[in-house]
Structures are given as C-alpha cells and as structure tokens.
Amino acid sequence: TDKMSKRWGTGTVVIPALKEVDEIMRKVPQGRVITINEIRAKLARKHGATIGCPITTGIFAWIAANAAGDGYRDRETEEKRRVKSYSFTRYFSKPFTFGGFLPLPGSIMCPSSWQCPAWEEDKAKQQVADSDLVLSIGGDGTMLHAAHISAPANVPILGINLGRLGFITELNADEAASKLPSLLKGAGWVEERAMLEARLGDKGFYALNDVVVRSTAVRLVNIKAEIDSEMLATYRADGVIIATATGSTGYSLAAGGPILHPQSKEIIL
To answer: How many CB atoms lie within 10 A of CB 6?
Structure first.
C-alpha cells in the first residue's frame, strides 16, 4: 500500500481496494489458505459487482509483479498443478490474460472488456472475433497463447509483461497505467509478424515462434524436407525446428540457428 500510495497517490481507486484486500487477509485464521475466488467473492458481495468483472483486476496484476512469499497460496491451483508450493506471485500472473483490462488510476474497468485465462483458448475464441484488441497480461508464453487465438481472427495483441524476460511483450506492468490510455487512442502502431501454419492429419494450428517435429521417444528419426513438393534435404536427427523470425531468438537460437530481423518473412529450418 505504501509503495502504491507514493506512485499514484492515496486518492485513487487503487489504494482503497488494496486496503480492502489487506483487511480480508488479516481476518484469515493462521494456517488457513484463502483462495483468489474467495477474495473476489467477498469484494463482489460488498460492492454489488459480479465475480467475472472484479474491481480489483489492477490490484492483483500489481501484486503479481511485486508481492512475494508463499503465505498467500491458492490451494485449488496447488492441487491442479500437483506441486507442494505454488506462490501468490506466480498464480496471479495468469487469470487476466486475453483482454483483462487494467483499471487505470481514477477510472473504472472498461465495460466492454472480457477476461479469460491463458489455458482456456477455446473459451477465448468465442470472444476474440468481436474484439478490437487483445491484452496479453503475463509473459512470453502468454503471448504465444494469445497468438494462437488472435491470428486467425486478425486481431492485434498488446503484451503487458508480468513474467521474467518479456522479450516479445511491449509494456512492463509499471508502464501500463501511464501508457495504455494513449495507445488505446491510436498513438501506437501495429507491427506485423510472420507466423507458421502446421497441419498433422486433419488437425491444424498456428505458431508465432516455431514448430518442432520430433519422435516421442529419445532416438534418431529420418526426416524428408520439401518446399512446394520439391525435395530440399533429408535429415537423420532427433528432430527438426521450423522457426519464424520472432522465434529465431528462442529454441532455434539454442540449437545454433541465426537471429533474424523481427519483421523478416524468412523461415529457419
């Protein structure tokens, strides 16, 4: 609360909301774990808001980037992931992917926005077609999930980094509040990136970074590569990486591939 007061001032909507979360946490008996849904439900009942449109989205996004300590853990997530300790900071970087607008200081959440976790791509596909912009709030992995559902609908993505590297995201969490208003008013521009379309039998998908072909077992496989039905080469290896310019700094680079300009149309094999 002190850090946010110095940054935004005590008169904003952010500070009172954070204090309310703090009050709820203080009332939790020692040794009990309170889940994010319980906190959201308590605030929703108090303010007459729906759980699906919490007034505290920006609070949790800020906590995701700054809070620490596994005293705030989510039991449901721990059971789902089957891990002994899943920290507060890791958990809260996930639920506000795909259009979860951060409420700006002194304002309310955009009424036409929607939210969807990164792992629920099918649910997001139902919403993204009618959207003007997708906010990917997380790390590079979240951006890749967003690309899967946004590319077919030709909807641009704006990445807000809550992860570690954030190589392909545009804004850091502490920049979002000050820069989002101007970007949403048209101050920015759309940067196009080449993508890959892969098919396996009757199933297909899009990839922003790369497609990897390999055996399910750890062994060498024989691979024949063709371009427009013309033979290129044959490989005997543990697999093949097909990467875009965006993916040239990822797995491909680790395997010895070159780095391409981000807007290059070339493909690395």
So the answer is: 9
Structure tokens at 241: 């990486």
List the domain boundaries for the chain.
1-92, 94-190, 196-254
Nearest-angstrom CA–CA distance, 193 and 177? 26
Catalytically active residues, by annotation: 140
* pLDDT 10s digits, 120-152: 777 777 778 777 888 888 778 888 888 888 888
**Which superfamily does CATH assign the domain made up of 94-190 to?**
Probable inorganic polyphosphate/atp-NAD kinase; domain 1 (3.40.50.10330)
What is the rounded distance in angstroms from the CA atom of residue 42 to the CA atom of residue 97? 22
CA–CA gap between residue 3 and residue 65 (Å, rounded)? 13
pLDDT digits (tens, 9 = 90+) for 170-204: 888 777 777 877 877 777 788 888 999 999 889 88
Q: Name the pTM for this structure.
A: 0.54
Please give the DSSP secondary-structure letter assigned to residue 241.
E
Q: Rounded to whole angstroms, how far apart are CA atoms 27 and 42?
A: 12
